[in-house]
Amino acid sequence: MEIAKFVITCVLALITVGGTFAGIFKAYTKKMDDKIKAVKAEAAEQVQNAGAKVQEAKDEAERKLNAAKAAAEKGDETLRRDFSERISKLEADVSELHKTINDDLRDRLGNIEGEMKGMNNILKSIQNWFIDNTPHK
Questions:
Q1: Angle (deg, nearest 10), helices 2-73 and 77-133
Q2: Vertex 113, ends 111 and 116: CA angle to 5°?
Q3: Beta-sheet strands, E only, within 9-104
Q4: pTM tops 0.85
């Protein structure tokens, strides 16, 4: 009888421990699921906010474009003159930028070429050292 009580006590203890661990695991899983849901909800909200901001920016750009089209249709000569002056300035700036970039690129390539020529002698001396110090059969 004592053995049966001991076996029953052990089985009940095992069931209790298993139940406790199952409850802890279930609570942990629920907590993680809640965190995941919160992150998903926050991400969805941020996406909606970003979508609204994009739509607002798009609407503002369309309003500005329509205003520019209306001003151009009215034939505002000062606006056209201003645009042509801006275009001329931009063309000059782009030409200057192009020249600067080409000059910088030419200088850098010249420096690289000089470094490569300097390395040629070093590589030849290393090659000759290996040829001289390698035993021939």
A1: 130
A2: 110
A3: none
A4: no
